[in-house]
Amino acid sequence: MTRIAGGDRLAMEVLYARHHVRVFRFVLRFLQDEPAAEDVTIEVFLNVWRHADRFEGRSAASTWVLAIARHKALSALRRRPAEQLDDQTAKSVEDPADNPATALEKKDMSTIIRRSLLALPMQLREIIDLAYYHQKSLEEIAEIVGIPKNTVKTRMFRARVRLAGLLRDAGIERV
Q1: What's the pLDDT tens digit per position in 92-116?
Q2: Cα distance between residue 112 and residue 79, in whole Å
Q3: Which domains does the chain possess?
Q4: Which residue stretches of the chain have pLDDT < 70?
Q5: pTM for the full predicted model
Q6: How far apart (Å, rounded) are the C-alpha atoms in residues 29 and 125?
Q7: Is the sign of the CA dihedral 161, 166, 172, 175 positive or negative?
Q8: Per-residue DSSP letters for 93-131?
Q9: Rounded to an integer, what distance in angstroms lies between the CA atom of residue 144 and that of residue 136?
Q10: Are 173 and 166 within 8 A, CB to CB?
């Protein structure tokens, strides 16, 4: 980060190469929109380039970058206009009745797990995402999300209980 703060483009390229996929996937889980996630990912790394001198070294660089990504993703969610449903769009909406492909998809365990995760409230889902998909410690999660470590523990417990209930309702007893 010191080299990036000094304007070293190669150091920035290395940081980007190591972390851009992780940041993109993290942001995508928030936004559920690939083009928007790509835009936010670019914003994150531009922010890192411009403000690398603000990195204090109290955490890993990846933790700092994910904290920036979380902030940018939440800002993007707040900026989203409420979607309007016009007649043309309403006519293009598919019939929700299950066709054979949909019925098969519902039985797919990974699809069920993904849908169950998306059914969790955002503050619980982000804790699960950081812990299990990004292998962050409780301390790192607390720093990224900006909450005390004990709150992270509480949210982790609540997320696990709710996720277990959602999976049980979907017909999965043990994952």
Answers
A1: 555 555 566 655 655 677 788 888 8
A2: 29
A3: 2-79 (1.10.1740.10), 102-169 (1.10.10.10)
A4: 82-107, 174-175
A5: 0.62
A6: 9
A7: negative
A8: SPP-SPPHHHHHHHH-HHHHHHHHHHHS-HHHHHHHIII
A9: 10
A10: no
